Amino acid sequence: MKSLLASWRLLRLLGHIAKGLWIVALRFPALSPDQQHARVQVWSLELLSHAGISLRILGQPPVAGPVMLVANHISWLDIPVMHAARHCRFVSKSDVQGWPLIGTLATAAGTLYIERSSRRDALRMVRSMQEALERHEVLAVFPEGTTGDGREMLPFHANLLQAAVAAQAPVQPVGLRFADKVTGATSFAPSYIGDETLVGSIWRTLCAPPIEAVVHYGPPELAGERDRRAWTQHLHDTVDQLRKA
């Protein structure tokens, strides 16, 4: 029975991805940026529903930019979960752009891509992010740089926060957590780390009991007198508290 339910969810998920590609190809060119953002948010909410995942929002999502969201990184689901809670432009590793289907959807959602191994590209990205914040956009980054196991957070990298410092824009910490909807215990089904395959992680998620994705927003803050590294450590500790609360 569990396999049949997971198979049904997978078919619905694939159909929803196909629908997203159709919207991007045929509808997006005629939509304003705000209309595109609204479409992405609705599509993301529907994707979670097809996967058997409900959404719970704690705290106050940003009403408008400029603001940079910083969150812990657990799963391939983190991006649609955050889009479902509040549309934002993600900064993602360049590999995602080449992923079949997913890359097309990520690009349509406004993702900015960075080659993490290149210092020159990191500097280019910081400038692009600064310009986006100065246009009053809402950006989102995963400062861990890769997915963790959901138990302990990895250290935050400070370089991308330079864009918020340069633009004098606030940063809002966000704690992400997946929980068993019945027991409230942390669910590790959506994890995607190490040698795990994306297909394996998706199938494990679809086979799991109902999952609740929790997005916990903390209050936005400015760097103030703190240097970038001190601010980064403070944000790391705040995100850690939010995801556990």
Structure description:
The model has no long low-confidence stretch (mean pLDDT 89). Helix 1 packs antiparallel against helix 2 (33-50) and helix 1 (2-27) packs across helix 4 (102-108). This protein has eight helices and seven strands, in the order ααββαβαβαβαβαβα. A seven-stranded mixed β-sheet has the order 1-7-6-2-5-3-4, sandwiched between helices. With 245 residues, it is an alpha/beta fold. It has helices at residues 2-27, 33-50, 78-85, 102-108, 119-134, 162-167, 198-207, 228-244, and strands spanning 53-58, 67-71, 89-93, 112-114, 138-141, 171-180, 211-217. The radius of gyration is 17 Å and the shape is globular. Keywords: Acyltransferase, Lipid biosynthesis, Lipid metabolism, Transferase. Residues 67-179 form the Phospholipid/glycerol acyltransferase domain. GO terms for molecular function: acyltransferase activity.
Parts with pLDDT < 50 across at least 5 consecutive residues = none
Strand order of the largest sheet: 1-7-6-2-5-3-4
Instruction: Give the biggest sheet.
Output: 7 strands, mixed
Rg? 17 Å
How would you spell out the order of helices and strands? HHEEHEHEHEHEHEH
- Global structural class: alpha/beta
Strand runs, count: 7
Overall mean confidence score, pLDDT:
89
Portion of residues in beta strands equals 15-25%
Helical fraction: 40-55%
Shape assignment: globular
Task: Report, as a whole number of angstroms, the end-to-end distance.
Answer: 34 Å
How many alpha or pi helices?
8
Domain Phospholipid/glycerol acyltransferase: 67-179
Protein name: 1-acyl-sn-glycerol-3-phosphate acyltransferase
Keywords: Acyltransferase, Lipid biosynthesis, Lipid metabolism, Transferase
GO molecular function, one term: acyltransferase activity
